[in-house]
Amino acid sequence: MEYIDRLPSMDLMRSEKMMLAQLIIPVESAHRAVSYLGQLGLLQFRDVSSDPLFYQLPLWFSVYTCYMLVKLVAWERLLNDDKSPFQRTFVNQVKRCAEMSRKLRFFKDQIHKAGLGLSPHPASETDIELEDLEVGLAEHEHELLEMNHNSEKLQKAYNELLEFKMVLQKAGDFLMPDGNHSADHETELDENVHTNNDYADSASLLEQEMQPGLSDQSGVKFVSGVICKSKALRFERMLFRTTRGNMLFNQAPADDPIVDPASNEMVENIVFMVFFSGEQARKKIHKICEAFGANCYPVPEDSIKRRQITRDVLSRLSELETTLEAGLRHRDAALNSIAFQLTKWMNMVRREKAIYDTLNMLNFDVTKKCLVGEGWCPIFAKTMIQDALQRATFDSSSQVGIIFHVMDSIESPPTFFRTNHFTNAYQEIVDAYGVAKYQEANPAVYTVITFPFLFAVMFGDWGHGICLLLGALVLIAREKRLGSQKLSSFMEMLFGGRYVLLLMSLFSIYCGFIYNEFFSVPFHIFGSSAYKCRDATCRYQFVPQMIFLNSLFGYLSLLIIIKWCTGSQADLYHVMIYMFLSPFEDLGENKLFWGQAVIAVPWMLFPKPFILKRLHTERFQGRAYGILGTSDMYSDEEPDSARHPHGEEEFNFSEVFVHQMIHSIEFVLGAVSNTASYLRLWALSLAHSELSTVFYEKVLLLAWGYNNFMIRLVGLAVFAFATAFILLMMETLSAFLHALRLHWVEFQNKFYSGDGYKFKPFSFASLTDEDE
Amino acid sequence: MYGFEAMTFNIHGGYLEAIVRGYRSGLLTAADYNNLCQCETLDDIKMHLSATEYGPYLQNEPSPLHTTTIVEKCTLKLVDEYKHMLTQATEPLSTFLEYITYGHMIDNVVLIVTGTLHERDVQELLEKCHPLGMFDSIATLAVAQNMRELYRLVLVDTPLAPYFSECITSEDLDDMNIEIMRNTLYKAYLEDFYRFCQKLGGATAEIMSDLLAFEADRRAVNITINSIGTELTREDRRKLYSNFGLLYPYGHEELAICEDIDQVRGAMEKYPPYQSIFSKLSYGESQMLDKAFYEEEVKRLCLSFEQQFHYAVFFAYMRLREQEIRNLMWISECVAQNQKSRVHDSVVFIF
Asked: Which residue, A394, A417, A529, B114, is the most exposed by fewest CB within 10 angstroms?
């Protein structure tokens, strides 16, 4: 017995022992207590805020303190059956936190837009109160919004001036085409007017019309402005339709793009000038401009006036530019000061929100003086939690201590494995199939070795293994650096599985040695016998020790060993198959020894019901005593005994027997089909070696056959490429997937129910930026 | 090809059908509505919606919320989903999806034209338009003075152009003929959509013809009730009814001559599916008729999800979401105006 006690505890084999604890927290210290528990991160709160059950208090509790007792006389749950989120107690605080995190997101967005970076390390200032932070955030937001508003207004004015300037410049070209522009101008005119094909005529005519002062004579007027380039075509078409073609549309691309203040993007514009005649047309054109969001600017026809206005506009532009820049600098400074603190604030708000969310899971007693909560914690953490609670009481100088006591529960506790860097990845593999039931044997223990081993059986090649090993070692060597930064999803997967990769590579080197394979080149290290093809299917020693499997595959393993030892020529397949087909016939030269297991199946069929029956009888008796013993304690508190829900079941032997029969048949069939599944080990390992042989022989050796440097180089390149991508990456993936399947389907369905749920403690450390 | 959709439907439509069924499972449930109806302020509504699929759309809204913001953001979600589906769709599903928006297009055209007639600001009107019914040159509608111009300047570029053939007149626009234009357009649209679905065949045709027939009949009833006591002649009224549906043609004859709501009721009660709707109403009452029709519609729309391999689920999903947004708008309005007793007047539960 002593020896067993001295053994290291089986942390990974069985999940941590858990207990359900009840917390009774005075209101004044509740916030602090929950925040300390969050720092500790070892208690998983249950949502009891809408629990319709009455709360029972153990007897000793009334003795605990008279003060509390007074309040607890009418200890009763508020009978709200379904509380929606906004009916909970701390809903206002949660709302405030949500509002604050909205502001913080706004700041982050603004900082991002301004191209500034967040300071990665939270500033180590003294802690600020949440209320102060709230006020501060509101101030910052107000300030920032005001600045944005101002700069937007300025930007708009600036844009208008800029557009006006461009219109003025281009208008000059439109109105008085000089020698340089006339040529392309004429074609443009021609296209737009769609009149006769006499260039010279129309051009000169229009030029005449466009002389200053002509407009009042002929009635030709114009509207000029700026419109977004993407809308220009539709705009022109609409103008054409409205005026029935009686207009002239001139356009020129604007010189510089304009910043759209709403979206902060650069927009390409064109400057247009529409010539038309008639008052009716003017109204319509103005309406269309408005509808298309085109900005119109009045351009004087007189060139001197135009120049004067241009000068004016230019000077105002430069003024505005300086104002804009000053505003921008001011804003950047404000944002910088926010950016310095932002990470800290975000963490703080996130924590506060988590605290209030947790507090919402607690429930008030009727007197509204204390909060009651329930939660799961591992037993080893009891003292730590009590410690934290004591500190909370002390720090909030509360008169009444926080009460922490253990309850019993009908619910199955959550599953909590303490893993380390090394075992974590394996535990993940198992959890992906299903989280172990509370205190169920954890397959991850076996998986640590069997998974890489099965992988290696399929991937056995020590050349490839070394490549994998190098990769795994690189990942492990850089563990610290890679762990602290954000990785791409693929890299994160690789990094997460670095220790799996390490063991996989070590085992493939080992298997590669046994197979004598180095990049598909046979290496004669252990002589010529390759244990490959057949025996690979036979390594079932790790399969759970069931009677049937032992009698079949344990027997098979035994046969293998006997074969190795005696050098017999027997064909093991033959033995196995004929064992079922004709159990009593002579096996000829395949006979190894007499009396092969016929007993296996009935063995499996019969004992269990009998054992079960015996066990049940024992348990039944035991429990009857147990109930007698405990009933005194609970009788006054829980009359209808929710904690022992199913009294005593009848033990029905025939039913169990039928069940066992079904199970046996299922098991036998499963064993056969699973054995066939394990054949994939053999198939894949063959495929892998064949594939690498093909690449080696048909590419590398073929290329080497030529006495040409170039061909050899190309051959080498193709070989290297194929090795790296097909053999190392794709084959690794396929072997990995097959190993995964063998574990999930063939291995774990033998014994692993995996219907538990994970322990998710309330912990600040696990609060990530999920809402970003 | 009825009965054989299962063989080929998934080649092009499978992905999107899965998507739309996923979207549908995000619709608010009766429990959600119960919680929403208990809200005290718009912030409570926002908080509750933040736990639903609307969450990301509302989370960055600053706190004093308005009903319009909630509705706008919820509509934005619908529009995003619609756009996603449209970009993934191939023919003929993409055409089918586009057909769904034409109704909104008609409403937007009418909204802008009426607004301009009453000298409202175009930008303000544009904000009120349903985003699904927007088209490029919609703002230019303000320029038009009469139907002919409306068609020639703007609508000739839109998919609505063919529906316009019946209402090109040179009359100046006024409220009356705008309303007639709306109904004529809608009639042409429904008939066109109906023909398109018939052409698609299979379960799509079967289910869509049922849904569209219901829509057409509902419009016929509404036109009748709204035109009672106006100067619209019987022949003109008759012309506005769509030429399909359960009421076509004999029901239409009867509706065309109705002079009060009880006569409408008498005409409709001859049709068993509508009898149940009217039996819920007391005589002379038409207030609750809308809700009764909406409830019936929602029931039919939900049923269309029971079959697979057809396009009607897309139509049904869009309609159900729109109903949901109408519900949210009503609840928000009631909460904002402290009229919580009236919350249940117009909310149609979907599940």
From this structure: A529
